[in-house]
Structures are given as C-alpha cells and as structure tokens.
Design a protein that fits this description.
The complex is a heterotrimer of chains A (101), B (178) and C (740). With 101 residues, chain A is mainly α. Chain A is built from three helices and no strands. In chain A, helix 2 packs antiparallel against helix 3. The relative contact order of chain A is 0.14. Helices cover 66% and strands 3% of the residues of chain C. Chain C has a two-stranded antiparallel sheet. In chain C, helix 2 packs parallel to helix 4 and helix 11 runs antiparallel to helix 15. The longest helix of chain C has 78 residues. Chain C is elongated, with a radius of gyration of 33 Å. Classes of the chains: A mainly alpha (101), B mainly alpha (178), C mainly alpha (740). The interface between A and B is large, with 72 and 83 residues.
C-alpha cells in the first residue's frame, strides 16, 4: 500500500483539486487556498521522491523552501487581498479588472 | 501496521479535505478544510520519514498561513459574494459557471494524463529501493545541508521572507483616500 | 593546581554581570550601582591575582595554558578545516596583564565613584566602565583572533560611548565619532588580516598560528604580489595602529579626553590603547616572519617623537597627558619593532600604572579647581598635597629618572633600539629609530616637568584673571567655579587612596627586581629580573605537534609535560632581546650606553624645564619660534589634513570627478553626440516614413491588426482565471509534448 505510486496519486489528486479551486472559485482567498494546495502537492512529491528514489535529503530541503515561499506568498497575497477589499469593498475576482483597457 | 494506519488515515484526510476545500460554499469552511488537508500532508510526511518537514509543515502552515487566511477572510467579511444563484451543477454561481467547469475538466484531464504518464515513466525507470522502516532523525543532516550545500538558497530565502513581510506591511498599510 | 573554566570565567563575567545589572536596573540601585561595578572589578582582580600568583611564582607547571571552551562554528568539509573554537589562553604575559588591567581598572572605578559623584551621567558612566574593563579582560584571555576581535570591537564601542558621554556637548560627540571612525580604519585591516589567516590555516588560534609559523605553512603563498606573511602581519599591525593610535591614525586619542577624566584614564592607561600593542606582541612571530618589524619600529619612533613635540606646547593639562600617552605608545611600538619584546610589554605595564595615576591626579586637580588650563593653575602644591605627591612620582617615572619604573622599561627599549639602529647591521637609515627615541625621551622629561611646574609650583595664577570659564573648561560638572576658596585636601579614601597605591607602583624595583624569591639581593642584576625571565617572545617551535584540541582535552596543562620555561635560563632569554642577530656582548654595551645617555637626556630635560618655569632664567622658547609653535599647536595639521585632503579633496573630489564625468563626458559625447547622429537619421527616416511606412506599413498594418484584434478580444477578457487557464493549457501541452 505504501509505495511511491500511492504518494504520487495523492499528490496528483491534491494538485488537480488545487487547480480546479484556482480556476473555479471566484473568491480571491479561495484562489490562494488553491495555490497552497498545489504547493503542498509539489512538496509532497519532492519528499516522496527523496525517500523512494534518490534516497537523500535534498527533497526535504526543497520542500522546506517551498514552505518558506508559500509563507511569503501568503503574506503578500493576503496583503493584496486586504488592500483590494479596501478599494473595491469586495474580493470577487472578476472585479479585479483595473488593468484591462 | 501503525505506519499503514497512519498513511491510510492521512491519505483519506488529505484527499477528503481537499475535496472539501473545493466543494464548500463558505470560504470559512474552505479554510478549515484546508487545515485538515495540511494535517494530512504532515502525516504523509511523517510516514515518509521526513520528521523535520512534517513539524515545519504543522508550525508554518497551520500556525501561520491558515491563521493568516482566516484573518483575511474575517477582515474582508466573506459574505457579500455568497449569492443564491446556482449554476448548472446546483452549486452557487460564485463557484463558477459551466464554462469554467468545462475548461477545468479539460485541463484536469490533460494534467491527469500527463502526470500519470510521468509517474509511470518514473516508477518504471527509477531504481526504487526497498527501504527499511526505521527512520533516523533528519534534523541534524538537514541543518548541515542548509548551511553547507544550500547556504545560498537559505540566505536568499531569508531575504525573500524579509522582502515579503516588508512588502506585505507596505501594501496593507491604510492610506488616505484621495 | 586545578584550573577549570569556572575558575577563570569570573574574571571576565563579573564585570559583564555588573554591566547588565547596571544597564537595566542602574537607576533604581542606590548610588546608581557604582558600588556594584567596583565590586565586580574587585572580584575579577581577586581571580586575576590567583592566576598571577600561580603563574609568576612558579606553582603552575607550564608557562602557558590553553583551554578550549566550545566550538563556535565549524565550516570544515573534506580535508579543509575551517573552524573557530572559543578558548582561553593564559601564559605568563597574560597573567601579568590580567592583574594589571583588573587592578588599575579597580582603582579607576574607585576613583570614579568620587569623581562622578553628583554628575548627571553618573549612572551611565558606571554602565560602560565595567563593560569596557570586561572587554579588555576578555581580549587578554581569548586564545584566538576572532574572539579577540569581538572584544576589540566592544572596546571600540565603549570608548565611543565614554568619550561622548556628555551627549549634549557637540565637541564630545565629534570626538567620539572621530575616535570611532579612525579606529574603524584600522579595524577593517585587522579583520582582513584575521580572515586571511583563517582562509589559509583554517584556524585563528594563537597556538595554531605559532605552529603554522614553525612548520612554514605560510611559505609559498602570496597576496597582491607580497608574501602572505607580510600581508597578514601588515594588516594586523594596521589594526593595532588604529587602536594604539600610532602615527597616521593617532588623531583620535587626543580628542578622547572629552570624556570624564577617569574614563580617559581607563582608555589611555589600562585598556584600549594597550590592546594594539597587545595584539602586536601576541602576533610577534608573524611580524618577524612577515619582516615588518622595521616598519613597526619606524612608526613607533615617529609617533614617540612627534607626539612629544606636540605635548611641549599644549596648555590643557589633559592634552599634555594625552600626547604623552601617544608618545609612550610609540615607545612600546619601538620596543616591539626592535625586538625588545619583554621591555615593550614591561612598558605596557609600567605605563599603565603611571599613566592611570597621572590621569587620576589630573582628574583630582580638575575636579577640585574646575579648571583645565595650566596657565591658570600654579602653586597647587599647598592645596593638593597628596595629589601632588602622586603626580610627582608618576612624572619622575614617565620622565625616565632612575629608580622609577619608566626608567627601567623605557631605558631597556632605548638600549635595544640603540643596538638595533647602530650595531645590529641593519639598514643605516634605521638609525632614525634610536635618534628619535632619545630625542623624544628628552622632550618627555621636559614637557612632563613643565606640566608639573606650571600646575603645582610657582604662584597661584587663578586669582589674576577672571578665570575665563567659557573657553577652557572642557570637563562639564554643572558646578559653578569656586576657584578662590580651595580648601586643603584631606586624605579621602576614594580620591587619594587610588593615587597613592598607584604611585607606589611607579617605583622601579617592582619591575626590575626579582619578586619570585630567588636571589632577592641582586636587585639590579641582569639575570634575575623576573620580567625578563617570565616574558619572552613566543618560541614557535614549542607549538609544533601540540594542536589546540589536545590542550582542550585537559583542564590543566600540568600533566602534559610541556617545556617549562619559567626558570629555564636560556642564553638568549637573559637579555630579553628577540630581534635580529643577537650578540649578547654588544647588547650589553648598548644597554650601558643607552642607560647613561637616557639618564643624561632625562636630567637635562628636567633641568631645562626647571630653568624655564621655576627659576625663569631662560624665557620659554615659544615666542622665539612662532611658526614652529603654531605648527605644533596645530598638531602638525593632521586634523586639517584629514579633513581637507581625505574628506574634502579625496571623497568630495571623487564625487566631483564623477559629476564631471557625467556632465562633461557622458552628456557631451554620449547624449549630445547621440543627438547629432539622431538628426541625420531623422532626416533619412522622414523620407522613409512618408514613402514606405505611411503608404504601405501603416495602412496595411491597420487592416491586419483589426483582423487579429478579433481573436485577441476574446482572449483579453480581463479575467485573471481565464489567463490562468490559458497558462495551464500551454504548460500542459508542453509537458504532453515532452512525454508522448
């Protein structure tokens, strides 16, 4: 049951779900949630490969950096969300069209 | 046996909560489901012997990111876009119309195909070893790797974090209305 | 003897604890915690005295002791070792230095409790004073260059704070900034030297460096075309020059008297300025290997003589002392340079004693009469008898009068300099070292007695003018001047006892004799002076095959069977001369000549001062040579030179050059020239525009764009998620093509 393939399938499901969340949800926070899911899927892949294939700790390092980047991204993204809410009084993604035209 | 149980429960938690993130109407509930997903992923890390990564996952994600998300949801109200309108699937319109679902499905299929393909290639070619189930602590090795081989990336990530936090503070700073 | 870290650490930690407590709770403690600071220094003095006793009186088995405390960081990989261990290194020299620093600092603390009483900065002063002392003690204790550098920088910061402690005075702020920036120039080089050694050896511990020198590991490496040893030694010595205020970097030390006088005493005597000499002594084998000792000697000679000439025209009592410090530091550097290793170190000790005493006595004078300008003093002998006694002892010592400590140490430095300059077969130009040294010694005797006579003898000049308070008064006290009613000084425990204790140690026999109990009768015998026996230049061969880790394993080096140099009489260690071509007979004759010459020179300087300022039979020479006096009063114009040349001409000039480059070269040629080219192109393209572009291009493109727009309009929806989908699809198709 515990094999590389099972981890890869789990991370694939996580990835697809994150993708769909990013595409389908109209809430900016929800899109950020989708990004977190995708990043987690990638990190899980790294750790799984590092255990089953390369057998060293480089994958762990990568997943640590992914966590760091995710934290930075969440901070900046949520700051943007709050700023956006202050301006538009909504966080509907389709309102974010200032760059159009 | 314990490992198998842990893996199974973590996998179920991960996948179930991920689908929960996708399917709930309420953004607050989405965040809570994300928490469940992250716990599940941390459990998966633990089954992979990545103790330090698992603990970091719990501390950074669940202690930091999700709390941040919840704050953002609370600060932005989270009410005004829950509409009663429904789309084709009987879900709220805020969760996308038929086109988004169609394209999402298409993209998902494409990705599914590519990923399965990749996965098959790797599992076929990679020299997958039989690995014993005793997990040595990775903390000290990770520490050495971080300050020796990956010290540049380590420093850059610290600068990145600093920049991100300062940037976040500047962006979210209240400004006078013009 | 059992030595553990716990029995040594209190030396360093007690003042640190006092600093922390005073920094946090100082305002709430009674008397703002000055007793705590003094007590902490006393504790470290007790522990230092134990180490001193064990090392000097021979109970300890070895002449050095290394203890590895912990590994700070270890970056070694493969065979390359790059690590920094923190540790303790004590040898005979360090044990003497510890006792001197803690003892002098204790007396200065005691004096400060009197001096800084009712001062607005009382509490703050006693925050920095113990930190300063602890940094110096840590520097002496540390066994490697990195920890030494840390303490070095703490001292830099503390001196900055102490000099500028009266933050409201602009001059004090300027002086502290000047001290900080000037020493920073040296510190950069010091750090460069340390890192260079670290890169080469992988360790910066003293014992490892000595072993590397003995094994010849420095050979065959070069930096910037000069040999590696020369480079490293030069960098480290430049750091020492900054801290010890040697000739080009000396400008900060005279200004350092802006702080309270006990702070100056600590900076000038026990701690800060001796750090530079200390590191030069510790790295002496490297200096010899790098062949820069002649440079050290020349720099020292220039400093010794130049500062002495400046001191002859100063009127501020503290300025005279500040320049005399500079001059004496120059002698120490001469000692290092000419190979007079233990005499240089002995001068560090003797100088610390008498200079601390001089500064404290000056502080006593200033605090009593609230006046710093010597022309407004005079005749204070009657009012300040104890201060007068202490200052007289110290002046005799610094002037090099026989039977006082300054004679013992300075005379030996000068004797070795004489040998080095004339008899050792060196470059004839190096004869400048003893010549300047002896001239400076004469000037020292002259200006010190000038200070004494102007301050304590003659008639009191305070009543004659309306004591111009505004311009001369640099030590702010918040009291009003009451110059007319000086009372006779009573023996005050906090004011006079430190002075008297220090003045006891200005006697020469403490240093020249044999205190270790052997042949006590032969006080002036050449062989049994304890300083000569105990302090000698590190013999690097001793450290081969004695890696530092081995010392670290044991708490004491006693069972290591190390060579015991305490009472080992080597033929070359009797003279204490560690320089080139030692020839014992010639050295002895040089010492004899030097002793006679320096006695004659010192007494003639004293006599000249006596004739000028007491008897009045010779008029002071200042009016006769107005230009020379002006030059000296301007301190050879170094301050102006640095401001004008380096800052204004150098940095600002560089800025101006850059702006000229911008305006003249870049604007004229690049921008304007580009404009001219453009004009030609413009004419050509105008024709091209009209015919080709307008007719064919624009109209044709318009149609094409309109068509393309139809497609783009769909894609450019403005919805982020739509863009995202496009992106994903492109990515997916790319991956697809990769795998199928």
């Amino acid at each position: 049951m515990m094999s590389l393939a099972s981890y890869l399938i789990i991370s694939l499901i996580l990835f697809i779900v994150g993708l769909v969340v990013m595409i389908a949800r109209k809430n900016i926070v929800a899109i950020l949630l989708g990004i977190e899911l995708i990043l987690n899927a990638a990190a899980l892949n790294f750790v799984a490969y590092s255990r089953y294939v390369t057998n060293n700790l480089d994958g762990h390092i990568f997943s640590l950096f992914i966590i760091v980047v995710a934290a930075a991204e969440a901070a900046v993204g949520l700051a943007i969300v709050i700023r956006f809410f202050q301006i538009k009084e909504t966080i509907h993604i389709d309102e974010a069209t200032q760059l159009r035209n | 046996m314990f490992l198998q149980l842990l893996f199974l429960s973590s996998a179920v938690l991960t996948v179930g909560c991920a689908i929960g993130v996708l399917a709930t109407k309420n953004i607050m509930h989405s965040c809570i489901f994300l928490l469940g997903t992250l716990i599940g992923v941390a459990g998966l890390y633990a089954t992979l012997g990545a103790d330090f990564v698992a603990v970091t996952q719990i501390m950074v994600y669940m202690g930091g990111v999700v709390i941040l998300m919840l704050f953002a949801v609370m600060l932005t109200g989270g009410k005004d876009f829950i509409s009663k309108a429904q789309n084709l699937l009987g879900l709220p319109a805020s969760m996308g119309n038929k086109w988004t679902y169609a394209i999402g499905l298409l993209v998902g299929l494409v990705f599914l195909g590519t990923n399965v393909n990749l996965m098959l290639n790797i599992t076929k070619t990679a020299n997958v070893k039989e690995i014993s189930n005793d997990f040595p602590s990775t903390v000290s090795q990770l520490g050495h790797l971080l300050v020796k081989d990956h010290v540049l990336a380590f420093e850059i990530s610290s600068v990145l974090l600093l920049g991100a936090l300062v940037g976040a503070a500047i962006i979210a700073r209240p400004r006078k209305q013009q | 003897m059992e030595y553990t870290v716990g029995s040594i650490a209190p030396i360093f930690l007690a003042p640190v604890i006092a600093f922390v407590i005073n920094a946090i709770f100082g305002r709430k403690l009674p008397r703002q915690g000055d007793w705590l600071a003094t007590l902490s220094i006393f504790i470290s003095f007790i522990f230092s005295a134990r180490i001193f006793g064990d090392f000097v009186f021979g109970k300890f088995a070895s002449d050095f002791f290394v203890h590895k405390v912990f590994t700070w960081f270890d970056l070694s990989y493969g065979t390359q070792i790059w690590k920094v261990d923190m540790g303790i290194y004590i040898d005979n020299m360090a044990s003497i230095m510890l006792l001197m620093v803690s003892g002098v600092a204790f007396l200065i603390h005691l004096f400060s409790t009197w001096y800084m009483d009712h001062d607005e900065k009382h509490g703050r002063f006693f925050v920095f004073l113990p930190l300063f002392t602890s940094a110096m003690l840590g520097l002496v204790l540390s066994d490697n260059l990195f920890s030494m550098f840390i303490f070095w920088e703490i001292m830099g910061f503390c001196s900055y704070s102490l000099i500028g402690i009266y933050v409201k005075k602009e001059k004090a702020g300027d002086a502290s900034l000047k001290a900080f920036m000037t020493t920073r120039v040296g510190d950069v080089f010091l750090l460069l030297g340390i890192v260079a050694i670290w890169m080469l050896l992988g360790s910066v511990a003293y014992v490892d460096i000595y072993a590397a020198i003995a094994e010849g590991k420095f050979a065959g490496h070069s930096v910037l075309g000069i040999s590696f040893a020369t480079f490293a030694a030069l960098c480290i010595f430049l750091g020492g020059m900054g801290k010890s205020a040697q000739f080009p970097l000396h400008v900060w030390l005279p200004d350092a008297m802006m702080g309270p006088t006990p702070g100056s005493a600590l900076i000038h005597a026990a701690t800060m300025v001796t750090a530079g000499v200390w590191v030069s002594l510790r790295m002496y084998p490297l200096m010899v290997l790098g062949d820069i000792t002649w440079f050290i000697a020349v720099i020292g000679a220039i400093t010794a003589f130049g500062a002495a000439t400046i001191a002859t025209v100063q009127t501020d009592i503290k300025a005279v002392l500040a320049y005399s410090t500079l001059s004496q530091l120059g002698y120490m550097m001469i000692g290092v340079g000419v190979g007079s290793y233990n005499a240089a170190f002995m001068h560090v000790i003797t100088h610390a004693m008498f200079k601390a005493c001089l500064f404290l006595a000056a502080g006593s004078v200033i605090h009593t009469i609230h006046e710093q300008q010597m022309p407004k003093m005079g005749g204070l002998r009657k009012y300040l008898p104890y201060t007068h006694f202490a200052m007289m002892c110290c002046t005799l010592a610094i002037a090099g009068i026989p039977f006082f400590s300054g004679f013992v140490s300075k005379d030996r430095i000068l004797g070795d300099a004489l040998y080095y300059g004339f008899m050792a077969g060196q470059n004839p130009l190096l004869a400048i070292v003893p010549i300047l040294g002896f001239a400076g010694a004469g000037l020292t005797a002259f200006y010190m007695f000038r200070m004494m006579f102007l301050t304590f003898y003659g008639e009191n000049r305070m009543h004659h003018d309306d004591h111009g308070h505004g311009h001369g008064h640099q030590d702010s006290h918040g009291h009003e001047s009451h110059g007319h009613d000086i009372h006779h000084e009573h023996l005050d425990a906090r004011q006079n006892v430190p002075l008297l204790i220090l003045s006891v140690f200005t006697l020469g026999f403490w240093f020249a004799g044999n205190l270790t109990g052997q042949n006590f009768g032969k006080v002036f015998g050449e062989k049994n002076e304890w300083f000569k026996i105990l302090v000698e230049a590190p013999k690097v061969e001793k450290f081969i095959n004695s890696p530092r880790e081995e010392f670290g394993k044991t708490d004491t080096a006693a069972d290591k069977n190390l060579p015991k140099a305490v009472y080992d009489y080597h033929s070359d260690s009797q003279t204490g001369y560690a320089g080139p071509n030692p020839d014992t007979h010639k050295i002895h004759s040089a010492h004899t000549i030097g002793a006679i010459a320096s006695i004659i020179i010192a007494f003639s300087g004293v006599f000249l001062a006596f004739l000028m300022y007491i008897k009045g039979s010779i008029k002071p020479w200042a009016p006769k040579f107005p230009e020379l006096t002006k030059v000296l009063q301007n301190k050879y114009g170094f301050d102006e030179l640095y401001i004008d040349v380096i800052i204004k001409k150098g940095l600002l000039g560089f800025n101006r050059f850059l702006s000229w480059f911008d305006m003249g070269v870049y604007d004229r040629f690049a921008v304007d020239g580009w404009a001219a080219v453009n004009r030609v192109i413009f004419k050509a393209s105008k024709w091209f525009d009209n015919v080709v572009v307008d007719a064919i291009g624009v109209d044709g493109t318009g149609v094409a764009v309109n068509l393309f727009n139809l497609v783009l309009r769909i894609v450019q929806s403005g919805k982020i998620q739509f863009y995202f989908i496009m992106l994903i699809m492109v990515l997916a198709s790319y991956i697809w093509t990769l795998n199928i």
